[in-house]
Specification:
The chain is α/β, with parallel strands linked by helices. The protein folds into 3 domains: about 1-170, Rossmann fold (3-Layer(aba) Sandwich), CATH 3.40.50; about 180-370, Rossmann fold (3-Layer(aba) Sandwich), CATH 3.40.50.620; about 380-480, GMP Synthetase, Chain A, domain 3 (2-Layer Sandwich), CATH 3.30.300. About 35% of the residues lie in helices and about 25% in strands. It is built from 15 helices and 16 strands. Strands 1-2-7-6-5-3-4 form a 7-stranded mixed beta sheet, with helices on one face. Strands 10-9-8-11-12 form a 5-stranded parallel beta sheet, sandwiched between helices. Strands 13, 14, 15 and 16 form a 4-stranded mixed beta sheet that branches. Helix 6 (about 210-220) links the parallel strand 8 (about 200-205) and strand 9. Helix 5 (about 180-195) crosses helix 12 (about 350-360), helix 8 (about 260-270) runs antiparallel to helix 9 and helix 14 (about 390-405) packs antiparallel against helix 15. It is globular and about 80 Å long. The two termini are about 30 Å apart. The relative contact order is 0.08. Residues about 320-330 have low confidence and may be disordered. It binds xanthosine-5'-monophosphate. Xanthosine-5'-monophosphate (XMP) binds near residues 372 and 374.
């Protein structure tokens, strides 16, 4: 969040683990350093520390919450352990003479979460902020450009938080604020050209935001030396495959290798009920088909992927680069098998920045605003075996959910909204007839990143229209249920 807030101010920001040596940091030529917060206490065994050399690099340092405790500890101050943890809103009084608080109101309602407190600030520091619970809620040593804050300016709940970060970046670090998407495009195009040379790149398209934006950026850099492959696995929503092909041809002007593999996927999935087996079958078949297609491209040397910054950060644990936990290559094993090098032009960006980049590159808004859709597609939304008929039923129901959510003006504000086809039948009555048909569950969730989610309190009239239309219009459905589980404990997808 700290990095995102700074980038919103057009200040380029990178996240590094606290284990980084001051000398390595120096090689990156930062104009300032922020030590983030964290759940530890400086006195905990194994708590993250920082190379004390970072305070002598001659660049300003801002320690936030735990970062402030670390700074205090490293520079000879005394950190104490609070008897109770302060968590939530706090009212602080700040000293307007301190650069960090220039043009910021003197009384602020902020968001704080900490268990340590400063007993004594290091020598040369003044107290720059106080609160009822924390006599030292901020410290400053203007001569050395060192600042500490007990509260979190990066959270939206902290009044004037952005102003404080702006003061640090521009007032203290003298940032130019010239990191823009237009600049990013120029820089990336040059980087891609330098990496790829005269080589050829293959890119797998899903129709989603990330792969589309990556493809358009690559196309700008290397033109026809990019080949995009779109595999229709037969598990897409109604009209989706055609729409992706049309968008690429008409609105983006990029040639697409379209592979209709729907029959192969359906055959491979026949009779499979287990969710993990479904996922495995789909993933492996995708890789095989993608490889078959990629081998047809003469001289291909690179594979492009829409890896984003959060994937990169998650791959680096604070215990250092040795503890890389996750690898995020969704075309598993392909680069090694085919001796392809990876091109990841979005690996420095957050999701909302990818959308901004897409706008900069002229990608149609309809593509950029798309809700996420899982790789295994409708197969994980059909509980039980996937058949052509069940796909038809789910597609029709899903189209109604989509249309009604859009008509209500809710599509963009919702993380995901979709239908799930259940493997049970219930009794109903339609006209004079008894029916015995399937149930569809509707799921709509709010989420920031898909890691946690809460169900959307959809207006009753929207739910009613969805339900009435599905039952009236979709042959094979006679009941609609609404999923009111949050994540955790429920996942977003049902399988
Ligand atoms: P869950 O169901 O785990 O989903 O709460 C979290 C987010 O990830 C998406 N998802 C997937 N995306 N391949 C993908 O590309 C997958 O296999 C996959 N499974 C889940 C899901 O739609 C939600 O946005």
């Amino acid at each position: 969040m700290i990095a995102r807030r700074l980038r919103e101010l057009s200040v380029y920001t990178e996240i590094v683990p606290p284990t980084i040596a001051a000398a390595d940091l120096k090689h990156r030529h930062p104009i300032g350093l922020i030590l983030s917060g964290g759940p530890s206490s400086v006195s905990d065994a194994g708590a993250p520390t920082v190379d004390p050399g970072v305070f002598d690099l001659g660049i300003p340092v801002l320690g936030i919450c735990y970062g402030m405790m670390l700074m205090t500890h490293a520079l000879g101050g005394v950190v104490g352990r609070a008897t109770s943890r302060e968590y939530g809103h706090a009212d602080v009084t700040v000293d307007g003479d301190v650069a960090l608080f220039k043009d910021v109101p003197s009384h602020l309602r902020v968001w704080a979460s900490h268990g340590d407190f400063i007993e004594q600030a290091p020598e040369g520091f003044v107290t720059s902020a106080t609160s009822a619970n924390a006599p030292v809620a901020g410290i400053a040593c203007a001569d050395r450009g060192l600042y500490g804050l007990l509260f979190h300016p990066e959270v939206v709940h902290s009044a004037s938080g952005t102003d404080i970060l702006r003061n640090f970046a521009f007032g203290v670090c003298r940032a130019r604020g010239d990191w823009t998407m237009a600049g990013f495009v120029e820089e990336s195009v040059a980087k891609i050209r330098a990496q790829v040379g005269q080589g050829r790149v293959v890119c797998g398209l899903s129709g989603g935001v990330d792969s589309t934006v990556a493809a358009v950026l690559l196309h700008r850099a290397i033109g026809d030396r990019l080949t995009c492959i779109f595999v229709d696995n037969g598990l897409l929503r109604g009209g989706e495959a055609e729409e992706v092909v049309r968008t690429f041809r008409d609105a983006i002007g990029l040639r697409l290798d379209f592979v209709d593999a729907s029959t192969r996927f359906l055959e491979a999935l026949a009779g499979v009920e287990d969710p993990e087996r479904k996922r495995k079958i789909i993933g492996e078949l995708f890789v095989r088909i993608f490889e078959e297609e990629a081998r047809k491209i003469p001289g291909v040397g690179f594979l492009a992927q829409g890896t984003l910054y959060p994937d990169v950060i998650e791959s680096v644990s604070f215990k250092g680069p040795s503890a890389v936990i996750k690898s995020h290559h969704n075309v598993g094993g392909l680069p090694e098998r085919m001796h392809l090098k990876l091109v990841e032009p979005l690996r420095e960006l957050f999701k909302d920045e990818v959308r901004e980049l897409g706008r900069e590159l002229g990608v149609p808004a309809r593509v950029l605003e798309r809700q996420p859709f899982p790789g295994p597609g409708l197969a994980v939304r059909i509980i039980g075996p996937v058949t052509g008929e069940r796909l038809r039923v789910l597609r029709e129901a899903d189209a109604i959910v989509d249309a009604e959510i859009r008509a209500a003006g809710l599509y963009e504000s919702i993380w995901q909204s979709f239908a799930v086809l259940l493997p049970i039948k219930t009794v109903g009555v339609m006209g004079d007839f008894r029916t015995y048909e399937n149930v569809v569950a509707v799921r709509a969730v709010h989420s920031q990143d898909g890691m946690t989610a809460d169900w959307v309190r959809l207006p009753y009239d929207v739910l009613q229209r969805i339900s009435t239309r599905i039952i009236n219009e979709v042959k094979g459905i006679n009941r609609v249920a609404y999923d009111i589980s949050s994540k955790p404990p429920g996942t977003i997808e049902w399988e």
